[in-house]
Amino acid sequence: MGEYFVNENKLSDYPLLKSLTAPLQIRQYNLKQLAALAREVRQFLIDSVCETGGHFSSNMGTVELTVALFHVFDFLTDRIVWDVGHQAYSHKVLTGRWKQFSTLRQYNGISGFLKRDESPYDHFDAGHSSTSISAALGMAKARDLQKQDFACIALIGDGSMTAGMAFESLNQAGYIKAKQFLVILNDNDMSINPNVGSLQGYLNHIVSGQYYHKWQDRIEKAIEAIPINNLRRLLARLVNDGQAIKRIAIPGLLFEDLGFRYIGPVNGHDIKTLTRSLAEAKEKMQDGPVLLHVQTKKGYGYTPSEQNPLKWHGISPSDTAFEEAEQASADPDKPAPPSYTKVFGETLTALADKDERIVGISAAMLDGTGLNIFQKAHPDRCFDVGIAEQHAITFAAGLAVQGLRPVCAIYSTFLQRGFDQVFHDVCLQNLPVTFALDRAGLVGADGPTHHGLYDIAYLRCLPNIILMAPKDEDEFRHMLFTAIYSDHPAAIRYPRGSAIGVPLRDPLLPMSIGKSELLLEGSDIVLIALGTMVHPALEAARNLESDGISCAVINARFAKPLDKEMITAWARKTGRVATIEEGCLPGGFGSAIAECLADAGIRAALLRCGVSDHLVQHGPTDKLLQIEGLNGEEIANRARTFINYSQQT
């Protein structure tokens, strides 16, 4: 970790944080001190995250809850799993990392998520959602088998309860009557976009039944005063069974039906209520699993984020418009290129204007994927299924079976969660479902849980699927058109952030499936680049030309099917092949080229440029590309070394 620290001049603004040498001290604080600590943490996050960038509104909503948790539990012994981990900044602050917050999400700085190798208080790594209950339950069971004694807590919120995995683990926890096991539902009505589905309506309905346990106590006392024995016994049986009154007070009682003792809902911004409720949960979980329903407000305590939690979900340094800030042009007279996300949303909308069969599907990421643009134009044909990628894909398959042309807009890293559905429900039936894989490649500050490096490797082995990657936004538009009308499963991978800035050609035309594009001819080596690596490959070719090295450059366009005719022809001409991809090397695009050459019996020297078999940390994308050898200069350097070596062997 780099030696970066918070401005020492600001220490006086946070006296309790300054005096906090260990989280265990918080257990001795009184309510007044706890409230003061929460105020300091919130102000610190406002001061710090507005400078560094990061997840903002989610963390504003969990400050009091975090402080209360550290007052009731000892997380050197007890275990907590945060879900989603991007709402755990207060946890990081209280566990001694507040002085390093100037490095948040920077290269060699602290992560924006929980990391076990960063702190002994971080008990599980997670950047995706809905994993907490399963992981915490596994910890609880391991504790019991090892005859240990500590509490296991899953804090799940920001939309994570909408995923099926959460209910699979709830089902098991209730069935095995897990003890010292607490699920805290942080109910803030939102993931990134507002939560959707009947579950959210159910949670809202629960609020009307929050006085159930108080009613039960009062009714029991009233029954004791009834003089008629038979009537008293009948009413007592109804109350003791619980079902009749519970169905009136809290319709459904889903969580109690699953075997949990339900507490709540409670105000997630009231320290007194939170500490009392957590203490009650800690006592009751000795007998079996407990679910504490906490209501918070995303963005709480900072007016701009309260009023617009979506805009403030993730912010760039000293800015509130995250991606828009990244796309600002250095030349005020030259408009900034659009983001690939925006190009996707606008192109899909234009296509859907002319074809009623086109529908869009998101897994709680309408704005993040650009489908919000589509939703405004075609609300009846846009479906946000919540954080449920598996369901999204099979839902798309059902739409396709009935003749529609569904487009699933899902981040590359999140599609991994639905791998079996892509195979079993889409590819095996050869259904025309299009997967728009935003955030492919290196995504920067979100780090290893979010880098979209594996989609080519995990998708190209599947039957019937077409895999594409555009070199620029114009090619992207034509690829989207091609994918939708290919009559096969198809996936297009494209990066986060700004496009290249090329003119957009109309009308949209289908591309020849599996045909690449020759950009430069050369005699010494052929550079075969995929997607975002085409322009760095051209830069490398110009660099090498100054050394008298003649490079051919091919824009592959397709990772599957490959343009075997062009690839083999230029491999024979040059005798040297370099593949360049912003993805993992094991099983990736370079592996596909190697298989192609081997199958054709071509013994050309092969250099594969990509991300080797290791985890890439968080940091600025340009820096990560340089480190991985994937910018123009580094590709040229590697090609020089490769050519020199091949000449000597």
Number of domains: 3
Report Rg: 28 Å
Arithmetic mean pLDDT: 86
| CATH homology superfamily name of the largest domain | Thiamin diphosphate (ThDP)-binding fold, Pyr/PP domains
Number of helices: 28
Please name the CATH architecture of the largest domain: 3-Layer(aba) Sandwich
Taken from the alpha-carbon principal axes, the silhouette is globular
Helix content: 40-55%
Q: Assign the structural class, choosing from mainly alpha, mainly beta, alpha/beta, alpha+beta, or little secondary structure.
A: alpha/beta
Query: Order of strands across the biggest sheet?
Result: 9-8-10-11-13-12-17
- Uncertain parts: 1-9, 205-212, 318-330
Explain the overall architecture:
This protein is an alpha/beta fold and 649 residues long. It folds into 3 domains: 8-209 and 250-307, Thiamin diphosphate (ThDP)-binding fold, Pyr/PP domains (Rossmann fold); 340-493, Rossmann fold (3-Layer(aba) Sandwich), CATH 3.40.50.970; 517-648, Rossmann fold. Helix 16 packs parallel to helix 18 (371-377). The longest helix is centred in the first third of the chain and has 22 residues, at 31-52.
